[in-house]
Structure formats: C-alpha cells, structure tokens
Records
---
Amino acid sequence: QVQMQESGPGLVKASQTLSLTCTVSGVSITTASYYWSWIRQPPEKGLEWIGAIAYTGTPYYNASLKSRTSISRDTSKNHFTLQLSSVTPEDTAAYYCARGVAWFDSWGQGTQVTVSS
C-alpha cells in the first residue's frame, strides 16, 4: 500500500522559494513506469498540475510554471522535492503530491502553503 506525505513550511514570503518534500512509503520511487507529481489547488479554484518526476529521474513541468519550478528526488530517502521560486500570493494553495501524471491513483493528504506579501 502506497502512502505519501507532504512536508514543508506552511508560510513563505513573497519572492522567496517554496520548497516541499513528498515522502513515499510502500513502493520505491524508482519502480518502473511510475511517475510522481506535484499538484496544487488555490482557494476556490481547480486543481493545477505543477510537474512530475519519472521513475528514471527525468522531470516534467507545466509549461506555465516551468521557469520557476524544479522537481528533484533523493532515492536513498525515497522522496521527491518541489521547489517553486519567486513566489507571489497567487501561489497560495493546497499542495499535493500524487502518483501518476495524467491520472493519479495515490495522493498525499496535502499541505497548505500561504505566500505572504
């Protein structure tokens, strides 16, 4: 059974870098064919896919966020990390990690991140 847990600061100042980690248990993030995504949901808006990292370590990004996004992993800790730079209050959202890239079969519980101006 896959379990995923997001962690990171809940408050970030504008212009700084948001950094979140998703720790995965129950399966290795290097298991073939799995992709590991970051998704967010701003208040009163829909879900937005931010990007993913493949089992190979190759990252993929939403074109609209690509210039500010970096997704990496630490296979020894079985976790992957999101960094979103130059944040603004518009980046305030609930952030989720999930397994998959087009559809998702496991989700973390999510973590609220607020960007203060």
Note: The chain has a mean pLDDT of 97.
---
Amino acid sequence: VQLVESGGGLVQAGGSLRLSCAASGSIFSIEVMGWYRQAPGKERELAAAISYWGRTYYADSCRERFSISRDNVKNMLYLQMNRLKAEDTAMYYCAVKVKGSNKYDFWGQGTQVTVSS
C-alpha cells in the first residue's frame, strides 16, 4: 500500500485546512485509515481514525474541531481541520491498518501543518 498526503500548509490560528491522502496498491486489504501527527519534541499521536464502515475515533484535542472521512471508491482519506490552534502545528501522517492487523502497517511521508498565532 502506498500513501500520499497533500493539503498541508501555513494557516493563521482560527483558520481551516483539509488534508487528503491517496491510497494505492493493495487497497482491498485496508480496514482502518488514520491521521497521526507529530510536533517537534513531542510523541506521535493518533489524531483521528476511521474504519471501512465509517466508525470514527478522535483524540480529545481534536474531537470538536476535526472531521475525518474516507471515500472507499476513490481510495481517499480526508481530514477537515477547523478552528486551528498553534498547538495543532505538526507533521501529519496518513496511516492504514490492513485486515487482521493490530497496528498501523503503512505510512505516508507526511504533510506539514503550521498554524501561526
């Protein structure tokens, strides 16, 4: 599975961004898709995830402002981020779990999100 993220950039606090992730390869094996993020000097955290059937997970810091979605026909994953804060600044990575796996098996290269205060 290959994953390519896009949509990152520089935005002012309070603004919005939409991240996209295009999946290719053995896409039939993908069950869960997620967005991880890692800020400088901090541990990587799972910001949001979505199952094939649409069940979602959000980190507490993201739940009220972010929305994750996926298009299983186009093999795309999205993350709509609203009311962005400086603390959302991080590298955002698309990652997927294949069927039967208990860990994220494939990762994209990441897209940088920088929120200026």
Note: The mean pLDDT is 97.
